[in-house]
Design goal:
444 residues; alpha+beta; Adhesin_P1_C; Adhesin P1; five-stranded antiparallel sheet
Length: 444
């Protein structure tokens, strides 16, 4: 491909063996596939934050998404609605809105027959549950891994989507804590899953994160995780309006080395969001919305991310940065393909982004009610039309028995009874992600 300084590219290999999966390859923006973790786009912690986006962009589709909130809203099992993972948007703000990081609790768990019951309490033993009260019902349990793989067909978008839902909803990924503003914040030794440390101080390390957020961490999300919640000069952070998916701990005294913990949101991905599922050896790559996700090694996880490599648009390019900050980046994504060198390239049509910008500008010019929070992000166009994972409604009930009790398995992520070291975690992943099995299933 030949590109200009603005990032616009024209494909010249359309007649070769690696054909693109869409027709408008000569129009749009070539995305430089570039890792975004640990680079210049990460937020400074413990000091003055860099320029951040306005409040409207705290609901970026690439970071927050929409989730099923029927259980926590007390609606019937037949009622489904989606709210933003920041707890803002289609429902009134409240302390129990979907995605509220403060809903995180440590609960004692007891088992009676096939039912699991949790009750609010202090963390005492390792046989405890991490309770996210607002997790969506379509989170796929780890036990569904073989089933998700068996339903995968590389020529069938819906079956590929089943695989992706199982893949991203099942693998525990350790989300890195924020530390000093240098490369040390993303070193492998910072990737810990120590129950003892978690029990004593949740700000010391990463919570294990489950779900689609693993494929969505991008410069916009990292850059804005403080949002407007950081109080300058007061020695403390407030969480009244939390940034995207992050829990910002309170600070006190002279302690200014803030730690942020990523809380997993849930998304309603559709086949239209997923493209170019490529299997090569022990590597699986696919395009998820505008972001390339690559599982680089199924056997030996790298850099503490359990084999997950995150890459996306180049935030240093002005046109691509415009896409990153766009309220609806999916409006510009036109697909991806593998060129003859084996590299994944993406095509972006900026007309959709420009149309959104023009519409928002027109609304701001004519509306006296426009506030600093900006316009509410529209729903994902297919959010209500297509749900992948099916959960029997009797298995997902918000029936409350007494104070804080709930029988639903899908509201609780159960910790392994014993996790002592990353070596043991790696060994468990080897058993779960046998590359021969994965490759066989993917090629069926």
């Amino acid at each position: 491909s030949a590109g200009s300084s603005s990032g616009i590219s024209t494909n010249t290999s359309g007649s070769r063996s690696s054909l693109p999966t869409f027709s408008n390859i000569g129009v749009g923006l070539k995305a430089n596939v570039k890792a975004t973790l640990g680079g210049s786009q990460t937020m400074i912690t413990g000091g003055s934050p860099r320029r951040t986006l306005d409040q409207a962009n705290l609901q970026l589709w690439t970071g927050a998404g929409w989730r099923n909130d029927k259980a926590s809203s007390g609606q019937s099992d037949d009622h489904t609605k989606f709210t933003s993972a920041t707890g803002m948007g289609q429902q009134e703000q409240s302390g129990t809105s979907a995605g509220n990081p403060d809903s995180l609790k440590q609960d004692k768990i007891s088992k009676s027959g096939d039912s699991l019951t949790t009750q609010d309490g202090n963390a005492m033993e390792q046989q405890e549950a991490t309770n996210y009260t607002n997790l969506p019902p379509n989170l796929t349990p780890t036990a569904d891994w073989p089933n998700a793989l068996s339903f995968t067909n590389k020529n069938n978008a819906q079956r590929a989507q089943l695989f992706l839902r199982g893949l991203l909803g099942s693998i525990p990924v350790l989300v890195n804590k924020s530390g000093q503003d240098d490369n040390s914040k993303f070193k492998a030794e910072d990737q810990k899953w120590s129950y003892t440390d978690l029990q004593s101080d949740q700000t010391k390390l990463n919570l294990p994160a489950y779900g689609e957020v693993n494929g969505l961490l991008n410069p916009a999300l990292v850059e804005t995780y403080f949002g407007n919640t950081r109080a300058s000069g007061s020695g403390s952070n407030t969480t009244s309006s939390p940034g995207i998916g992050f829990k910002i701990p309170e600070q006190s005294g002279t302690n200014t080395t803030s730690k942020a913990v990523l809380i997993t949101p849930g998304l309603a991905w559709t086949p239209q969001d997923v493209g170019n599922l490529v299997v090569s050896g022990t590597t699986v790559s696919f395009q998820l919305g505008g972001w390339l996700v690559t599982f680089t090694d199924f056997v030996k996880p790298r850099a503490g991310y359990l084999g997950l490599q995150l890459s996306g648009l180049d935030a240093s390019d002005s046109d691509q940065r415009e896409l990153i900050w766009a309220p609806r980046p999916w409006a510009a994504f036109r697909g991806s393909w593998v060129n003859r060198l084996g590299r994944v390239e993406s095509v972006w049509d900026l007309k959709g982004v420009w149309a959104d910008q023009a519409q928002l500008a027109a609304q701001a010019a004519t509306s006296s009610a426009t506030t600093a929070t900006g316009a509410t992000l529209p729903e994902h166009p297919n959010a209500l039309a297509y749900q992948i994972s099916y959960t029997d409604k009797d298995s997902y009930k918000a029936s409350t028995q007494g104070s804080g009790q709930n029988n639903s398995l899908y509201l609780h992520l159960i910790k392994p009874k014993k996790v002592e070291s990353t070596t043991q975690l790696d060994q468990g992943l080897k058993n779960l992600l046998d590359p021969n099995q994965v490759r066989t299933k993917l090629r069926q």
